[in-house]
């Protein structure tokens, strides 16, 4: 995991200096080192490194056998298999870095190299007069691009590196690549993403696919931990990871991390139960509401968004990531993506039919790079911590998205559990009484959105604060001040105003998509706005 900047065009010393200066704004993404490669008149590559694989080597930009230069943000999980293939054609990887295979693959296969990758990535590669920029299929790693006044093309991991250098910029779309001669094109386009029918998946394979996805993401040469909210998704990942780690070493110590506003927060109580069941070394972090409100500017600067659910959830994750970094842990596994894949949010109860539910899950997965995975990446990388998301493994995702939508429709719960249960299919896949992965109370726990689970008073406090600092007259004139993405509530106004101060102009504002739940009368993004929510 790292921060990258690439500039292509008429690159002179001034452009290179501007790129190198902009890279310092990404230092939080790569606190372990920096690198620069330049070819006057055509390209400059800047890199900030978070050393995960082969910390002693693997400095970037990395060069291939024939002189290609690459900068990479992400992880290539199949890099060892790729390195063996490359060795067969005389291309020898000299480090243990997963990024090195990209340089050799690009030299050998050109833009088709992306099709061989199993992992998450945003990378730029240069070879002779040609260059390639590519982003992973779901956009788990962030990437933006724009042009400066001279027409040079810039790419960067975060908006803050472009805001002073480009006159226009936008989100680089996931599953796309761009080349010097071919421009921008989509390279990842499975049938499910196109909305086309195909072979219906077998739900009995979900458990093995997810276990395989977790095992891939245990790849690390530095300490690794688990984000554990006590919800179904993070708890499943924690349970699978703990089993896999202890299968390798029965005495291995596994660290789990949870956060809340007080000891009785819903997530902390549930995470405590899971940690005890799994036998992890568990860490509980408490944060004060007033400290969260005071951190709003820092949060918006790091996550680069004014979307309400993104801000609400990013603040506790930001504080938790700081604590995790201070414990010496650089990599964490997380449960993002499952709600979008399986229709886990409570508003999915209102889908009129399975086809409507299917379309919504596709839309939510396709836009994860603008919501949950953006939050997960930027709020953890603010402190140099890498979040890995097994639910978005392509093999698991292709299976899960090919399942019949009727199987994902919320239905009556099992005996003894009140209400209706979301993600019934996923729960059933892991409900093994003979060999339980989790306590039944956690396996069947109600969906609790992260910003609610840290303590019901957290979202209420944010609303109250906003209503205190935004006057009714300011809100009434919001459309005059913000004609694009006009805020409709005091809370939305606070976030929009602070974002505009940090990232002025409509180009920046258009890089954000605001999310609201469909089909329910109350459009607030808190899960408690849904009538099916049980609790205060």
UniProtKB/TrEMBL annotation:
Coiled-coil ranges from the UniProt annotation: none
Classification via InterPro entries: Asn_synth_AEB, Asn_synthase, Asn_Synthetase, AsnB_N, GATase_2_dom, Ntn_hydrolases_N, Rossmann-like_a/b/a_fold
Pathway noted in the entry: Amino-acid biosynthesis
Any one GO molecular function term: asparagine synthase (glutamine-hydrolyzing) activity
Enzyme Commission number: 6.3.5.4
Key words of the record: Amino-acid biosynthesis, Asparagine biosynthesis, ATP-binding, Glutamine amidotransferase, Ligase, Nucleotide-binding
Catalytic activity: L-aspartate + L-glutamine + ATP + H2O = L-asparagine + L-glutamate + AMP + diphosphate + H(+)
Domain of life assignment: Bacteria
Domain Glutamine amidotransferase type-2, first and last residues per copy: 2-183
PROSITE patterns: GATASE_TYPE_2 (PS51278)
Family statement drawn from the similarity comment of this UniProt entry: Belongs to the asparagine synthetase family.
PANTHER family noted in UniProt: ASPARAGINE SYNTHETASE, ASPARAGINE SYNTHETASE [GLUTAMINE-HYDROLYZING]
Name of the protein described by the UniProt record: asparagine synthase (glutamine-hydrolyzing)
Species the sequence originates in: Nannocystis bainbridge
